[in-house]
Amino acid sequence: MTPDIDHAEAKTLMHAAIDGELDTLTQLRFDAHLATCPDCAAEHARLTALSTAIRTRATRHAAPAELRQMLAASLAVPTPTAPNPSGTVLPFRRRWLPPAGAGFVLGAALAASLAVMIDTRNVDDTVADSIVTAHIRALQPGHLTDVQISDQHQVKPWFDGKIDFSPPVKELGDQGFDLVGGRLDYIDGKEAAVVVYRRKLHMIDLFVTRAGHDAAHPDAVPVPRAMPNGYNVVRWSDGGQDYWAVSDLNRNELGDFAKAWLGR
Amino acid sequence: MILDDAFGSMTNVGPPTDTARFAEMALPHLDAAYNLARWLTRDSSDASDVVQEAMLRALRFFGSYRGGSGKSWLLTIVRNTAIDWMRANRPMQAAAAPVGDEDPLENIADEGDDPEAALIRVADRQQLDRLIAALPAEFRECLVLRELEDLSYKEIAAVTGVPIGTVMSRLARARQLMQRNWTRENAR
Lengths: 264, 188
What we know:
The complex is a heterodimer of chains A (264) and B (188). Chain A is built from 9 helices and 6 strands. With 264 residues, chain A is an alpha+beta fold. Chain A folds into 2 domains: 7-57, Orthogonal Bundle (Arc Repressor Mutant, subunit A); 110-262, Phosphorylase Kinase, domain 1, CATH 3.30.200.100. In chain A, helix 1 (7-18) packs across helix 2 (24-36). Chain B is elongated, with a radius of gyration of 19 Å. Chain B is mainly α and 188 residues long. Chain B is 72% helix and 0% strand. Chain B has helices spanning 2-12, 16-26, 30-41, 44-60, 70-89, 91-94, 114-121, 125-133, 137-148, 153-160, 164-187. In chain B, helix 1 (2-12) crosses helix 4 (44-60).
């Protein structure tokens, strides 16, 4: 048998022993020393007590539900209604998409106008996802606006030279939507001007991009739709540019915003 | 900005299956990520910010993940994000002189023993949390990773970017400081 370890060595190995990091033979030799050394035994008892106390009673902070939901939404994973205690992997599925084949003919759409259906059909879910994600990110401190002014004559020139199109910046304060500022973003492979509005405590990001080939019909009535996690998006187009508004405002109020913007 | 880049890649490139794979790997470790961020920042809303940014970075760098412990991989990013965050938002604290890694074992008092162990055994959650929060950051992160997240020395070394020997001495120092402070509190 290997000779017992001496006192100094035992001291050096003390924490590794407590943490189970010693190989079996060394652990046995350490234990042998402990049995003969009251000093080391006492220290070992103290440290073990401390380790056990921390492990059993110090706080393991669980991620807040809002954070979990926000991340799950960003990653397009169904949000569990409760924390997932088993730690099992969540299945990936975009649960808010209608089943394949169902098309856009959802119950509510049956009663809706053709214009609404056109709008719904054209909505690009991937873009909607990224709009919501970008909005969530922007809500983090310091990210909301690059130019933070409430006058369209300041916001609009700020975009000049930064992007190759000119987003309309409208004052809608008299209709309850205050202009907060603007920033640049990058959505769906395109530069986006973001005009930021606020209604009470709710922020609204209006993403403006050059219209893609699948631009919504310019005359379509914008209908907000719910995204996971409490956000709503509404899309419209003026033919030249696409507009996406996203907010945690309810769908009616976000619809009001779209109408206010369109002057309807 | 890092965040913008991360989101750009998150939403614009790469097949969705990458995001799905990332979600499968990362979300089960969300509590661990938050716990570490919370202990490093010592603030719940700061911790949420750090975790969000860390998840974005992690997604962005997911291509460089080569298997192995997803938890260690993710916690490494959380830890680095927290440090960057502290530098940006709490420069005074982050700029504090680094704590030396002198041999802590010499300093441990040899006095007995079981009364102290008994005392520690009755420390409650509030007291333990306070003692951990009072530790210098380098020691605190090692202790949290070891005792609360159950990482091995090797994993802690990978997460914190220091040699295993340093992990051991930091852990020893963390425990020594906790013991000392606890004894002092109870001596009053």
